[in-house]
């Protein structure tokens, strides 16, 4: 009888140990993809502009006031959209900026984003230094050569990179800090909005194909959000300070429609790759239409900044921001709050509505 009780006890102890191991694996399991590469602008820059002679920098408080590491260069009070996606993909650390990435850490991915950057090389030049989309792609090519060295040969590197997620989000500054800035740029007199969107997509497409040539196979192409609803646009161009600026938003929609069509074209032309489109425009429309259901009480003003609606310029060093940051859709004159970024990141990863993504979400893309 004693021996049977002993055996029963041993079996149950083993079962408990196995169960605990399974729980630990679920919590600390491997990421769903081996690496995550990020290309973009200030919406996702996490420190690449810190060492650049540029006015587009955010490595000072109150930026990062709610981020565990404090100010890092993120244009947010806390996390960005790609930070949220990295968490959901299962990474145990945020993807490092290219400026700081090195060694075997690059095997987890690299963030190449640069504040004020655009698809066009001249975009954002009035703000000083920045790394355009073309420059970011060149930096990625340097990373690929390092991956080849680490893994031993090009075939191993190509197989590894083919499993990774690539996120591209550019175009906002080509409107904000180019087309709709006629005192600095000639593009609005050279192109109609339709022609400009086509020119941007043509250049964008060429750089995407460069990424494909260097191993990218799972690509997330992010549409432009509602720039005409930012506190800056409302402060400068809205008669009542709350109605979104239609001429800006309609131009953004022209770009987004072409970008979604590009996803179709690339999926048919490059059958060993998979492209998806994130409909940031409609996701933001949902947040603006139903702010209370997402916990937002302020949608037309930044939490910090200067001027009407805190919309003339971004947060000043040492400025005291609002206390109810989670209730603000926007953090500063241009950038969403962490609360908004988390929602967009979650809906990009796992679509809440069928219109959020096309033809699938990031979670499904990771599983391919």
From TrEMBL:
UniProt keyword Lipid metabolism, yes or no: yes
Superkingdom: Eukaryota
Extent of the signal sequence: 1-29
SUPFAM superfamilies on file: SGNH hydrolase
Pfam families for the chain: Lipase_GDSL
A GO biological process held by the record: lipid catabolic process
InterPro entries: GDSL, GDSL_esterase/lipase, SGNH_hydro_sf, SGNH_plant_lipase-like
GO cellular component, one term: extracellular region
Keywords: Hydrolase, Lipid degradation, Lipid metabolism, Secreted, Signal
PANTHER family: GDSL-LIKE LIPASE/ACYLHYDROLASE-RELATED (PTHR45650), OS01G0748500 PROTEIN (PTHR45650:SF3)
Name recorded for this polypeptide: Putative SGNH hydrolase-type esterase domain-containing protein
Organism of this sequence: Helianthus annuus
Taxonomic placement: Eukaryota, Viridiplantae, Streptophyta, Embryophyta, Tracheophyta
